Amino acid sequence: MSTAQTMVNVTINVNGSDRNEVVAARTLLVHLLRENLRLTGTHIGCDTSNCGACTVLLDGHAVKSCTVLAVQADGCAVRTVESLAAPDGTLDAVQEGFRQEHGLQCGYCTPGMLMAVTSLLTDNSTPSDHEIREALEGNLCRCTGYEMIVRSVRWAVDHPNELEAPA
Amino acid sequence: MIPASFGYVRAGSADEALAALAEHGDEAKLLAGGHSLLPLMKLRLARPEVLVDIGRVADLRYVREDGDAVRIGALTTIRQLEFDETLAAHVPLLRASAHAVGDPQVRARGTIGGSLSHGDGASDLPAVALALGARLVIRGPSGTREMDIDDFFLGFLETAVGEDEMLTEIVVPKCGDAGWSFQKFNRRAQDWAIVGVALVHGNGSGPTGVGLVNMSSRPLRAAAAEEALRNGASATEVGALAAEGTEAPSDLNARAEYREYLARVLVERAVAEATI
Amino acid sequence: MSLVGARVLRKEDPNLLTGRGRFVDDLAPAGCLHMQFVRSLEAHARIVSVDTSEAEAVDGVLAVFSIRDLADLPTLPSSPEGMGRPILAKDKVVFAGEPVAVVVAEDRATAEDATEGVVVDYAPLPVAASIEVALAEGAPLVKEELGTNSPFGMGPDAAVAAETDAVFAAAPHSRSLHLVNQRCAPTPIEAQGCVADWGPDGLTVWATFQAPHHLRNKLVDFFGIPAHSVRVIAPDVGGGFGSKIVFSPEYFLAAEASRRLGRPVKFMQSRSDAMVLTTHGRDQIHDVDVAFDDEAHVLALRLHVIQNVGGHPDATAMGLGVLTTWMASGCYRIPSIAAGFQVCLTNTTPVAAYRGAGRPEAAYMIERVMDLVADATGVDPAEVRYRNFIQPDDMPYPSATNEAVVYDSGNYPAALQELQRLIDYDALVAEIAENNADPSKPLKGLGLSCWVEIAGFGPNGSLEGFGHLGSWESANVRIQPDGSVIIAVGTSPHGQGHETTFAQIAADELGVDFDKITVRHGDTATVQQGIGTMGSRAVPVCGEGVKNSSAAVREKAKLIAAHLLEANPDDLEVGDDAFSVRGTPSRSVSWRDVAWASFQPLEIPEEIGAGSLEDTRFQTVPNFSYPSGAYGCVVSIDRITGEVTVDRYVCVDDCGVVINPLLAEGQVHGGAAQGIAQALYEQMTYDENGQPLTATLVDYLVPSAADLPHLESGRVVTPTPVNTLGAQGIGESGSVGAPPAVVNAVVDALRAGGADIDHIDMPVTPEKVWSVLREHGIIAGGGS
């Protein structure tokens, strides 16, 4: 009944599609996404759960996918950066905000930022600048100094029509 | 950054979890939100041979009123605490302190049971539990027992939860009109506290307690300060006693002397805020 | 409409925003193996033995190498003379984390598991973990063969030193400062990594690198293989800040492993790897004396810099002290400057360039000095600066520090005036004074930083000393048959937006639509020889090359257009993707038609050969450029806890002509954030045994959006004569100018509160401030 398995069978609804993988139990969710499913938009920037580059939505809330075992997400819904734009490439409001206000430079922290912002705007569609900064305290960026990230979120808040309803 | 190999067991209920713990003994660790355990495992500082995943035990995720208390399932996430209306109405200290834990992503996964069971003196919720005089419900092979929070934290990352037991519920008193305050002094917003204070002051009509964050290797009450608070001492007088009986660590963020000083300052500020 | 100067959105963004960036760790060639390091836990120890047998026996491990398996390979490139670094530790380790062996396995998890099976026996040696210990009498030697831990230094010239001493002796006043510019870790969010694939057709290395051609040249030399068979690709790179131009062992080890095993090999640092393996920045100690008169005129400066270079010095580290001493004058006319530096080896991670690379240290020093002079004379800090500024009419200004240093352009008074205007200086000073008179309010302070830095690397010879092929930068502009444009540049961006900036420049020169231009970079197979991105050189050097190449192509195209229109080429204008006769716009021919014709010998005059609409040049510049600015910072200090909060931060920058104001502002913000982080949060710390205490992002405090202030920007423009763009470059400006404004503000606040201090070292932690408040008996009530 409780035989400990070193290999596990995991089914996760990723960006709207059920994906099934057999992986080692120790596989981190971020590695399943990147290596097994080849969704390489989610990035790894640290190994102590500080940087947030790996942020995805798990059942609608932002989590650090490097600190979740893939098997913990079994039966759950995950959304990654690849789910934000329309299939024809039209950016959603948050992405468009980052483009309009230069909220990215090297782009490495960006997918995690976008997912964290998406989660914020689901909880609070009209955050103040202070609330934006607080919501991003778990997402480190080394390029922008954050000023233009805040402006990018402000743009998305002011142009909400493009925002999809959360999955 | 990849943990050492382990065997995985999924528990659908508390009983299944306990059975797995009984079977695998001290080789096994419970996995709830994983935000205390997985970081240690990724650096290979912890290498449990078996992980018993209790993340899906849905019936341990709740916040419900029970007379003059509020019962909280151990697997309630910190985010759930942060947004809970019952807590907002009846235990605002817990709700406010939940918001201060880590960052939003951490709060989405971390659980109150996980935080208390981990028993880290540098964590926020243990200090809150101490201040509130929480009672813990622990389930084991021989049944369920209840204990005072004061008997719960035994040492460095050591709690009263046995190897074959699990924390299932936290019971906190409704605070009524009690004043409260949560003070957290840290460098970056996502950091653990250099020093933190959880304070509730019922003034006769609710709990009174002062819990400290990062003033010892285990979660600790500011017992002397608490007593002065109960006796109606002023904020300054209460604050002056904040560091009594503590063993503040010295580390990169602060020497012990500065921590002791901060404890006095933050307790004084907490009393002042709680009595507005 | 001119695109140069316009706020143009980036071409790079749609890919990056949709998760379609291709970073090194995203690559997964078929059969790719994974490499992991076994790193030393000792900071200084003889290697007695390395037993790899247990690791080799792990299922899925293909090979484990230590130095004995790699004995035929040379030392790593770009080690200074006599300090060759072996590809893996040999005989001894000289810093904690130094790689001793590599494991190559089928997957990353197996490689990590197997590293635990490598048993290294160390005989510990005494450790020199700090400059103090390393320079003391009888200190343990990091490299015994050198006979010293300080094998190199420069200056001051004896005659200059004597003259400066004389000025000091005669000066009405002099003061001294001891400054620590603490060690930082550049910490790009993408760590370092590579994929090496060495097959029968040659070697390809994808690398997180800022200078792919430079890496290729080094691979060629290292392995003794012909250049035509080596290809280096820098795909999308997640930040660098100078740390990704160092020839770390993994680029060579992964290649060798691929050669031996016949499969691609990937190496990707974890952050824990990165904190000890990727080169650190800063770590200078300054002793500075300043001589001045009653009116706060600075008469002379004496500066000695000690640069910690770590255990295996990188060639770059040798040059940091040069740049610091070169820039010791700052924005000021200081008649006598005696500046010198020495390097110091320690048992720590090697130090190399980190955004600003020697110039933030200089700006920090001179700006602390100017405030010291203000404190000593009672003259307002802004006024002190005005009295000492090099004036715009003095440009080009030969610095007293070195004949190589001639400031190109700048208007320091205008920048400071603009800053004062933006912060309403007089009112702000009064408001702060009034605030500070109320003991129930936090202590406030205002700090200025008027800074200049050396950028646009550089004139001939300036980079050759660091082993680069040259100091030029390359641009190739090539018209496609349909009139669209591909530009190949030798720079290698990692966030700077070159694909956008260079397209703006080219669009203006060629009269081609911005959307019809693609800028390519980072691949040695498809891009002509290049130097790379560092030293804020992309716009002033490469941008100039793009401009000139585009202009050359335009002029050639005009000949074809003129032929097609039967007009005189001198009568033609270009714009909106077409050539037209001036005054008769209906007589026009499209770029498309001109381009197509350019490949059709029958359509064009014989003397214009087919395929002529292309230009390649290796652009040189006659001088460095010297961006400058004036930054202001207002802080509040909690009188009880010592906590420092930045209330306001304003950056006025002068980088000459701005190509894209959105991108330029972004560069300033990023650099300023790193500078403020250095002032308040970051410190790479070692204990006396050389153990790094800040080896993860838990302890090394890179701040988030919640920890940094709102940043405001302003601008002054003094075009540089160094290139026809008039642009100086701006990539490192923020990190040069930002720290002194913060520290000056803190000292200002503490002095206003009654603490008679000259200085407080970075990072300015709450505990440090609390100690000052307590020592000076000015801690507010409560908690005592």
Explain what the structure shows.
- The complex is a heterotrimer of chains A (167), B (276) and C (784).
- Helices cover 29% and strands 16% of the residues of chain A.
- Chain A has five helices and five strands.
- The model of chain A has no long low-confidence stretch (mean pLDDT 95).
- A five-stranded mixed β-sheet of chain A has the order 2-1-5-3-4, sandwiched between helices.
- Chain A folds into two domains: 76 residues, Beta-grasp domain (Ubiquitin-like (UB roll)); 68 residues, [2Fe-2S]-binding domain (DNA polymerase, domain 1).
- With 167 residues, chain A is of the alpha+beta class.
- In chain A, helix 2 crosses helix 5.
- With 276 residues, chain B is of the alpha+beta class.
- Chain B folds into three domains: 47 residues, Uridine Diphospho-n-acetylenolpyruvylglucosamine Reductase, domain 2, CATH 3.30.43; 116 residues, Uridine Diphospho-n-acetylenolpyruvylglucosamine Reductase, domain 3 (2-Layer Sandwich); 95 residues, Enolase-like, domain 1, CATH 3.30.390.50.
- Chain B is built from eleven helices and 14 strands.
- A five-stranded antiparallel β-sheet of chain B has the order 4-5-10-6-7.
- In chain B, strand 12 and strand 13 form a beta hairpin.
- In chain B, helix 5 runs antiparallel to helix 8.
- The longest helix of chain B is centred in the C-terminal third of the chain and has 19 residues.
- Chain B is globular, with a radius of gyration of 18 Å.
- By secondary structure, chain C is an alpha+beta fold.
- Chain C folds into three domains: 204 residues, Aldehyde oxidase/xanthine dehydrogenase, a/b hammerhead (Aldehyde Oxidoreductase, domain 3); 252 residues, Aldehyde Oxidoreductase, domain 4; 148 residues, Aldehyde oxidase/xanthine dehydrogenase, molybdopterin binding domain (Aldehyde Oxidoreductase, domain 4, 2-Layer Sandwich).
- Chain C contains 19 helices and 28 strands.
- In chain C, helix 9 runs parallel beside helix 10, helix 10 runs parallel beside helix 18 and helix 15 packs across helix 16.
- The mean pLDDT of chain C is 97.
- At the B-C interface, helix 11 of B face helix 3 and helix 19 of C.
